[in-house]
Amino acid sequence: METKNLMKLALLSLPMMIAAPANAHKEQGIIDTNTQQELVANITLNLDCQAHPEALQRAVSFNYLAQTVKFVVSGECAGPIEIKNSRFEIINDAGRTGSIRVKQDQEHVQQSAVLVQSGSVVLSNINIDVPNDMPAVELKANSVGQLKHVTTNAKSASEDSFQQFLVTDNSTAYFESFSGNSVGVYGSSYAEFTKATDQIELKVFDTSSAKSNDKNHFSSVQVAGNGYFLADNQSNINLLMVWSKGAAEINNKSRVGEIMMGGQTHFAAYKESTIAGPYGIWGNVVFELEHSTAYNWKAVDKPYSIIIGNNANVNGKFYPGWSWTGQAK
Predict the structure, then answer these.
(1) What is the Cα 35 distance to its own chain's centre?
(2) Which residues contact 294 (CB under 8 A, 6 or more apart)?
(3) How far from 170 is each of 81, 151, 184, 198, 214, CA to CA, in Å?
(4) Are 293 and 314 in contact (CB under 8 A)?
(5) What is the pLDDT of residue 294?
(6) What's residue 199's pLDDT?
(7) Does the first or last residue of the chain, that is N or C, have fewer Cβ atoms within 10 Å of its Cβ?
(8) What are the tens digits of pLDDT across the range 169-210?
(9) pLDDT of amino acid 67
């Protein structure tokens, strides 16, 4: 079949797609998994969830004759949504009427509103409405997600162990234009906060890593279990906690308020970055200031810790070279 014909067939109306069986014939823009067909680069489908609440659920269950499929949603789409071994973009319509909702009294096996397994997803300008204790988005099994201005009401009575967005099991996520959300990065995964994120609560555990690129603001960051976090380019952290062989660094005029460290951990500030304090230090730690500033520092008696500074400014006093040690004499 010619590529241009495939594009036309892929843009069929949603009612036809909903009526199609799971192994729908290729003439409906959906590919039978038992056949080999030419793929187009991408297709776009408009989904009217106001008329068909299950439209998005059904649409992501098909295999398409395209490398990437974009769904433009309007109305309230029924959740939960599972994306497996596929590449989808889910974006709101021009009037931003689209959303995803899992109802409070709804029975569901899936533990998150949007679950991506071994797949790739772009979510843009979407609100996700969920019952208590249900995360909004979970990426797992080597998935990749680009999340742009995704809002949610997700919450739990056990706030300490609950995150609205989960990145797990060797997955990768990119966050943009988020505010007041909680994010957990686990199991050798990676998260990057590109821009316009504010008041984020972040946890980076289990040999995972995360990075803040540009003037993002975090209410708290917790790093543990060989996790790593880099706050770069004027990023701001109210409370930084580094435990259990975790490591955190701030760079290029970034800032940390309170720091808590313990259990063979590492912290470093580079290139005119600032730490305001206070400081809670337990165990054997490495604390380094490199051309950076620390306020409210109180000398500590930690003979097995390494607390040093190169051209550091501490409590208003400049220490040239590696002359600052931070230890009680």
Answers:
(1) 36
(2) 269, 274, 275, 277, 309, 312, 313, 314, 315
(3) 21, 24, 13, 25, 24
(4) yes
(5) 98
(6) 96
(7) C
(8) 999 999 999 999 999 999 999 999 999 999 999 999 999 999
(9) 84
Q: In this predicted structure, what is the pLDDT of residue 37? A: 58
Query: Can you read off the two tokens belonging to residue 172?
Result: 């990768």
Provide, rounded to the nearest whole percent, the portion of the chain with pLDDT above 70.
88
What was the pLDDT predicted at 157?
78
Q: What is the pLDDT of residue 41?
A: 79
Which residues in the chain land under pLDDT 70?
1-39, 159
Q: Report the Cα 319 to chain-centroid distance in Å.
A: 39
pTM: 0.87
pLDDT for position 40: 75
Q: How far is CA 229 from CA 91, 138, 237, 272, in A?
A: 29, 20, 11, 18
Residue 42, beta-bridge partner list = 68
What was the pLDDT predicted at 38?
Answer: 64
H, E, C per residue of the chain: CCHHHHHHHHCCCHHHHHHCCCCCCHHHCECCCCCCCCCEEEEEEEEECCCCCCHHHHHCCCCECEEEEEEEEECEEECCEEEECCEEEEEECCCCCCEEECCCCCCCCCCCCEEEECCEEEEECCEEECCCCCCCEEEECCCEEEEECCEECCCCCCHHHCCCEEECCCCEEEEECCECCEEEECCCCEEEEEECCECEEEEECCCCEEEECCCCEEEEEEECCCCEEEECCCCEEEEEEEECCCEEEECCCCEEEEEEEECCEEEEEECCCEECCCEEEECCEEEEEECCEECCCCCECCCCCEEEEECEEECCEEECCCCECCECC
